[in-house]
């Protein structure tokens, strides 16, 4: 029975989708060690931001195929460990954009009008109208750091509120900035000149403590800082000091370097204009339903053997691409598997050459499929589309891509794989015929025309009378049935390649006898 584990609160609509295809178990708030001890039973794990999916947990799994993060940030998942283990990681990149952007705007307004503290005072029976005079957002300068989906929506709403919006994002073009009505600025100027600064970027080693004491000192003393993106982007000790010393006028923080916020956090000792919320950016009914459905559908599809829409660890393999390239991917994987058995030994380099119609397709998926095939004899079930590139890289196999626009020999173009390794260079070329049939069209540059079959024997021999007959009778006398046979040669009576499709695997002893046949220089049994 397929089993899915859910360890954070997930909207019922997502659970209903998963229940159609799997047994769904809930263990909300489970500890890391408990999770590591039970993960081996599960095919899929669905989480929000509460669960830390560590390397230890991933390595304790044995049949885990997918981790679904119902939200955007995957910084609570060790994606590298998942990739190494061949576990797909999917998220919901757009499901909570509006929720997080609106929480940011709410934080800005609440800060500006002292809403939380005025509420507490009023509930205590006080009537402190003078104490809580605020300021307007209208005509104030807003600096947005990170102009992705949420940053762009915040900018849109802020523009509608009459704010002047500037932004910093090293990956956003001037055209895109113009489109979302944001004036691009450098980071230092943005902090120095803005009345409000809001963060909307991921936490990475480069962005950690992006807002530190130097940056806070550079801000206006009337400025306010909002972080509804990720904990760790702000040095919390420095922020507490900056607020206590009135270096800046206020801050509103939804996300923390350690969550839940620890009781000894310096932020809990700040007495001035600081609003804290417990990671509520995505907590709207609408967003929770969006992300739960989005991620549950992807988990369901992957468990059913289909592809995922938004995998974070297999770039370039969207469902559309997978569908349109199905025969091409199958050809690339089959050729990878074939060439690994012809090459033997350690491979240092794989060259992937695309010709004719193949050049029109994205090459990355074809490379991944070739690598998956190439490594599958060595790694068995452990290799998949998720970890193929990483596994090749860790084995020191470099990949070179080569596109040949010249008029192809085959109308449908061709794909050629060449390996360079301990046993010299080997190449296999293939194509797809009009009926979608896969064909191997050359082996080691010898032209052949072979439909790949489960068992094959590929020999190298001298082109001379009698060899084919001898081989045929050897196989026959050992009860190995030949389904088809092809000989490829460049010159008459020169070196040749023979490809036999056979119904049964070749026993090792028979292989030794084949190699002893006069004229046969090499014989490679192949299983596809
Ligand atoms: N508080 C919440 O509950 C909540 C909800 C949703 C998303 N988030 C977080 O909000 C952040 C933004 O989410 P998004 O959906 O807009 O993501 P996104 O990927 O659409 O946008 C992120 C942007 O940050 C930019 N960026 C990366 N490095 C940068 C740097 N060094 N300086 C400036 N910009 C940089 C990227 O170019 C990108 O445009 C993420 O960290 C996400 O995890 C939080
Ligand atoms: O799970 C949540 O509620 C938070 C999600 C949010 O941080 C995200 O990155 O999408």
From TrEMBL:
Enzyme class: oxidoreductase
UniProt entry keywords in alphabetical sequence: Amino-acid biosynthesis, NAD, Oxidoreductase, Serine biosynthesis
Gene3D superfamilies the UniProt entry points to: 3.30.70.260, D-3-phosphoglycerate dehydrogenase, domain 3, NAD(P)-binding Rossmann-like Domain
Keyword set includes Magnesium: no
Pathway where it operates: Amino-acid biosynthesis; L-serine biosynthesis; L-serine from 3-phospho-D-glycerate: step 1/3
ACT domain mapped to chain residues: 456-528
InterPro entries the record matches: ACT-like_dom_sf, ACT_dom, ASB_dom_sf, D-2-hydroxyacid_DH, D-isomer_2_OHA_DH_cat_dom, D-isomer_DH_CS1, D-isomer_DH_NAD-bd, NAD(P)-bd_dom_sf
Catalysed reactions, semicolon-separated: (2R)-3-phosphoglycerate + NAD(+) = 3-phosphooxypyruvate + NADH + H(+); (R)-2-hydroxyglutarate + NAD(+) = 2-oxoglutarate + NADH + H(+)
GO biological processes: L-serine biosynthetic process
MF-aspect GO terms: NAD binding; phosphoglycerate dehydrogenase activity
EC number: 1.1.1.95
Homology family: Belongs to the D-isomer specific 2-hydroxyacid dehydrogenase family.
Known function: Catalyzes the reversible oxidation of 3-phospho-D-glycerate to 3-phosphonooxypyruvate, the first step of the phosphorylated L-serine biosynthesis pathway. Also catalyzes the reversible oxidation of 2-hydroxyglutarate to 2-oxoglutarate.
Name of the protein in question: D-3-phosphoglycerate dehydrogenase
Source species of the chain: Prochlorococcus marinus (strain MIT 9301)
Organism taxonomic ancestry: Bacteria, Bacillati, Cyanobacteriota, Cyanophyceae, Synechococcales
